[in-house]
């Protein structure tokens, strides 16, 4: 096998491969042997058909498969001799037309003759990187005051609240929580119905209009009550029913006191720490680490702005497309979570608006990767697998399936570039003359944490009987639990497919 690599553009390359007749014949013969036992040809017993006849009768199956097998072998050899640094899969191309084709659509091999095919792919461009050693940059010092630490400790408390059944048969008061089923029917249009099961609501917090809360308070625990009212014009239960006169039927399962644990050694132990002092120290280290990373990122961004000012480079279209799609999906999910429906037309408009941001993001990535490569930095396959494993664990997905999805969609290239770009940015900062300055503003905790408000959405999930479960809701204790941080460093299971080519110059064919 012989190959030639040529640049089609600054971000696109073509590999033209010439297969010797003997190599092609051997690949064809191997496929013939594979299918011969099952080959059926009239006049011959199954499994006894001569090789030449098997090849002729099943040529449409044999030649494409032989080519596919050889491409896989050749890519491994080519990747060992060329720095490819691809950002897209390979496109099999017919050299006679210059167009992409599937193996079965490629020209038929003529026996005794060499066979030529081509592979095209997008790659990182070569960049003339301006000098970056000794650049001046300011970086804020990491400052964390005691109030911030205490506020975040309190947030942990509020995440670990419990619901305790209220004693007595007195009407519910503000601050307590009610658990109820609700059915709402419009009197204007009885076909409009809203139903909610096991709804958890804290009273007196302004989450609902007062008339509705007062009507609920009048229903005894374990009782079903019906009441009528006019819904506000605001989107309370959906635009379709807003402002309607409605009939509400509610079944109250229970009334609960919201109990916030004391900030003491006992609470610290529930969070995996020996005592409150150790927990406080861990939280401080966590906050300091996060602020330091934010400050470093801002300093790296300043350095990039200086360096990118004079850089003009063509960007790989595949990278821009994936980045724009990622940004668009994030925005679409945000809108859907806020209750908005995203139509196809809206999605396309979001995609259009995200394109400039995607271009800028890809430019930064391409530049940082170029810096990393110049500095001799690399990303190992294990690092890519670890990244995907952490994402799978965070989102509760199967690692093998998610890795396969990343591979099929070309996202492993983006993971590799993100990791390598981070290393490139770190090297820029290491080589810069950094001046530490006081922070422009002191980190302040969220207002609800300072005020001591409980986020009801983070309370315990209800059981099928309607009784609240124990413990703190999503994320309870995560910010202080040392085990949570350690888990991020867990290794992915063996046999994870991390050998799939997606790092440093290796091949990926699609």
**Relative helix content:** 40-55%
**Strand adjacency order, main sheet:** 1-2-5-3-4
Contiguous low-pLDDT stretches (5 residues minimum) are: 447-454, 456-489, 494-510
Number of helices: 14
The overall average pLDDT, rounded, is: 83
Written account of the structure:
With 510 residues, this protein is α+β, with helices and mostly antiparallel strands. It has 3 domains: 2-122, Alpha-Beta Plaits, CATH 3.30.70.1050; 136-151 and 265-487, Porin chaperone SurA, peptide-binding domain (Triger factor/SurA peptide-binding fold); 162-259, Roll (Chitinase A, domain 3), CATH 3.10.50.40. It has helices spanning 21-35, 51-57, 59-79, 146-159, 210-217, 265-270, 276-308, 317-337, 344-374, 381-395, 399-408, 411-431, 447-451, 482-487; strands spanning 2-9, 12-19, 91-94, 99-100, 115-122, 136-140, 162-165, 177-186, 193-202, 224-230, 245-259, 433-437. The protein has a 5-stranded antiparallel β-sheet with strand order 1-2-5-3-4. Strands 7, 8, 9, 10 and 11 form a 5-stranded antiparallel β-sheet that branches. The longest helix has 33 residues, at 276-308. It is extended and about 95 Å long. The relative contact order is 0.14.
Topology, please?
Elements (H helix, E strand, L loop, with lengths): L1 E8 L2 E8 L1 H15 L15 H7 L1 H21 L11 E4 L4 E2 L14 E8 L13 E5 L5 H14 L2 E4 L11 E10 L6 E10 L7 H8 L6 E7 L14 E15 L5 H6 L5 H33 L8 H21 L6 H31 L6 H15 L3 H10 L2 H21 L1 E5 L9 H5 L30 H6 L23
Helix pairs in contact: 1-3, 4-7, 7-12, 8-9, 9-12, 10-11, 10-12
